[in-house]
Write a structure and sequence with these properties.
Elements lengths: L19 E2 L17 H10 L1 E4 L5 H16 L1 H4 L4 E3 L6 E5 L1 H4 L1 H7 L2 H10 L4 E9 L9 E4 L1 H9 L6 E7 L10 E3 L6 E2 L11 H4 L10 H11 L2 E3 L6 E5 L4 E3 L10 E8 L36
Antiparallel strand pairs: 1-9, 2-11, 3-4, 4-5, 5-13, 6-12, 7-11, 7-13, 8-10, 8-12
The structure holds ligand 6CS and fe (iii) ion.
């Protein structure tokens, strides 16, 4: 879709510029009656930019998800596909994208009321999937994801107009302080940090292995970290983490024997569909960013036996 819209969050600019206040609400819900989460939960997401639900999926369900994730990682056809991203400097699988489209189990999980129902509430209306992926971060070899705001990339490279999207991460293995858990700067979602440097063509081929554009400058990161702190988000398998599209986050390399395998769904509100008019480079493949199918997910209750 390409209609001319103003670029409200300019980034990938030639030189440093001032941070920008967020122009969008964090919680878009206007009516909390019948909310799927508590009042404290809504306030927490609004204040911190993330929310953690330990035990949202029971161990039996998670075992099912993890078995399927391991089957995907070992499937030679998938390993050879462009949807699979390898770790930098190795042939180790880092991520597999588009799992909601290629895998019936994960397609159902993406529409499960327990997660899509919360996303729909927080984003204030029907949602579709902008992206889905498995990040394996294997033991010993799983490399870091440097500090970034997802929205900065989805805005600059996919043409996502406003901050009305969120990530939902389902932990498939134990996420400890040691094996490279998601680290967030609580509250950092309220500032937009423009990043310096024009996006190279086909940037995703490098950025998904090791991101170098769309990474804030050290001074901004230091100021954000001093102001908000850095929190490792840990939890047992079955924990679900929701985090706002503009929350500053990253994760360290995993040199422990314990894999940190997490599944991610990126929910975008249907009125915030990507817009080609906001993009300067050629579009990223649709296995990374949905460009056509903005139909609302059919959210319903699932039992994964
Ligand atoms: O470019 C993207 O869409 C991906 N990059 C990162 C580092 N996080 C979000 C997303 O997976
Ligand atoms: Fe990210």
């Amino acid at each position: 879709m390409s209609v001319s819209v103003p670029d409200l969050y300019p980034t990938r600019i030639p030189r440093h510029s001032r941070w920008q206040e967020r122009l969008d609400p964090v919680v878009h819900a206007t009516d909390s009656s019948g909310a799927p989460i508590s009042k404290e939960g809504v306030e927490g997401f609004d204040r911190d930019g993330y929310l953690v639900f330990p035990g949202m999926y029971d161990l039996r369900e998670v075992q099912l998800f993890l078995k399927e994730a391991q089957r995907i990682r070992e499937d030679p056809r998938i390993a050879a596909s462009e949807k699979t991203v390898l770790e930098p400097q190795s042939r180790v699988v880092r991520s597999v994208f588009d799992i909601h489209r290629d895998n019936p189990l994960f397609a159902s999980l993406s529409e499960d009321l327990r997660i899509a129902g919360i996303a729909r509430f927080l984003l204030g209306g029907d949602v579709y999937l902008h992206q889905s992926r498995l990040n394996f971060k294997p033991g010993f070899n799983g490399k870091e994801f440097y500090w970034h705001s997802d929205f900065e990339t989805w805005h600059a490279e996919d043409g996502m107009p406003r901050m009305r999207a969120l990530s939902c991460s389902v932990l498939l293995t134990e996420n400890t302080v040691a094996n490279g858990p998601l680290m967030v700067m609580p509250g950092s979602h309220r500032q937009f940090i423009p990043c310096v440097g024009e996006t190279p063509e086909n940037h995703y081929r490098e950025s998904l292995r090791k991101q170098e554009y769309g990474v804030p400058d050290h001074e901004s990161l230091e100021t954000l970290a001093n102001r908000h702190g850095i929190v490792p988000v840990t939890g047992p398998p079955g924990t679900v983490i929701f985090f706002d599209c503009n929350l500053m986050h990253g994760s360290n390399s995993n040199i422990t024997p314990l894999p940190r395998t997490n599944l991610f769904f990126v929910f975008n509100q249907v009125d915030n569909a990507v817009n080609d008019g906001l993009r300067k480079q050629s579009p990223r493949p649709d296995f990374i960013a949905e460009r056509k199918e903005f139909r609302p997910l059919s959210v319903r209750s699932h039992v994964f036996a």
